[in-house]
Amino acid sequence: AQDEAREIASLSISELTSIRNDLTGAAAFSDAYASAVASASRADIPAAVARLNHEMFELPASQTGAYYQAVETRPELVCHERKLMFLDYENGDVTLAAKRLAKYWEDRLEIFGPDRCFLPMTLRGAMRDQAMPMARRQIWQPV
Q1: Residue 43 per-residue DSSP state
Q2: pLDDT attached to residue 121
Q3: Lowest-pLDDT range of 74-78, 87-91, 112-116, 129-133
Q4: Distance CA 3, CA 7 (A)
Q5: CA-CA-CA-CA torsion sign (55, 61, 64, 67)
Q6: How many whole angstroms from its chain centre is CA 12?
Q7: Cβ atoms 123, 24 nearer than 8 A
Q8: Closest CA to 133 of 24, 29, 27, 8
Q9: For residue 60, is pLDDT > 80?
Q10: What is the largest CA-CA distance in the chain?
Q11: Is the pLDDT of residue 75 over 70?
Q12: Quick one: residue 84, left, alpha or beta (phi over 0 = left, psi -120 to 50 = alpha)?
């Protein structure tokens, strides 16, 4: 633990910022949201999200349990902006976006378990205690 603390303390501000962005996806999230909003007109956004919500209801309960648990416990993690990113990724195909969204939450639950799945994807949330192991495995690379 002391070696890890020393290693973290030796990093520059630029390296720490890069690590944070890599681990939290902060830059990628804002870029993806900007892209999703740009690809849909403001009038289309509520309708698109409503169609996605309806499609989520149509999926089998066995595929949507983790998603609905997130909706109930951490609605900010399944807000319109995040749903728009799934729609944008699937080029507006609501059925594919719903399946991808459900799979995302099922995978997240499997990977992080029920204790951390519904926490924000940050170093203080679901990724706590992961910075140094990820650095050792070279999952990220400072830019």
Answers
A1: T
A2: 75
A3: 129-133
A4: 6
A5: positive
A6: 26
A7: yes
A8: 8
A9: yes
A10: 54
A11: yes
A12: alpha
| Nearest-angstrom CA–CA distance, 72 and 109 | 15
Task: Give the mean pLDDT of the chain.
Answer: 77
Please name the amino acid found at residue 125: G
Average the pLDDT over 6-25 and give the result.
64
CB 82 within 8 A of CB 89: no
Helices (H), the chain: 2-9, 13-24, 26-39, 44-58, 61-73, 80-89, 94-116, 131-136
Distances, alpha carbon 104 to alpha carbons 10, 44, 63, 123, in Å: 35, 24, 10, 19
Amino acid letter, residue 64: T
Say if CB 97 and CB 90 are below 8 A apart.
yes
Would you say the C-alpha torsion 105, 111, 115, 116 has a positive or negative sign?
negative
